[in-house]
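Just wondering, does anyone understand what follows?

——
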Amino acid sequence: MSKGIEIQILSKIKKAKRGSLFFMDSFATTGNAKTVNKALERLVKSGEIERLATGIYYRPETSDLIGKLTPSIEAVAVAIAKRDRAKIFPTGAYAENRLGLSTQVPMNVVYVTDGSARKIKIGKRSILFKKVNPKSVAMIGEISGLAIQALKSIGKEKVRDTEIKHIQKLLKNEKPTRLEHDIRLAPAWIRKIFLPVLIELKNEQK
């Protein structure tokens, strides 16, 4: 019975592209949790899959240059959000890094979410999901949403002119409709930073 479940799980895994992430929940219809867990552990031992963290597995992808590739922190966070049907946005030092405001890659990556709060250890690094009001993650623009989180992290009194100009330059690549939507969700001081860019983008459309 357990061997049959292992074959079913492996068949499903092999249909996905290499590097894909899997959770215990991914095989909920295959068997009970205990049997699925044992099957996954056997697949880890045989080298078919790798265990990334508790309850998180992936099918290894390899590179001719550096060998086995591990899924990125971002890929793991996105996969968890998709599984939980939650919205997430990078915040803090990670948001600043993603926008090019900092070259420092934080060991502990923080996301705000409307889903469950949790912390996931991946090797020496970790992903922290901080639960917030749904309005705080209601942004629809990738750049504008990220910029709001980064600016909140830096703070009104500490943000520098060079950082403001850098963000305004990036915002010119955002879709005007998304930027207009997200401005309404931002604090007043951030709206003042975004507004000149929105006006410029709208004038270009005329």
Remarks:
- The mean pLDDT is 92.
- The first helix runs from residue 2 to 15.
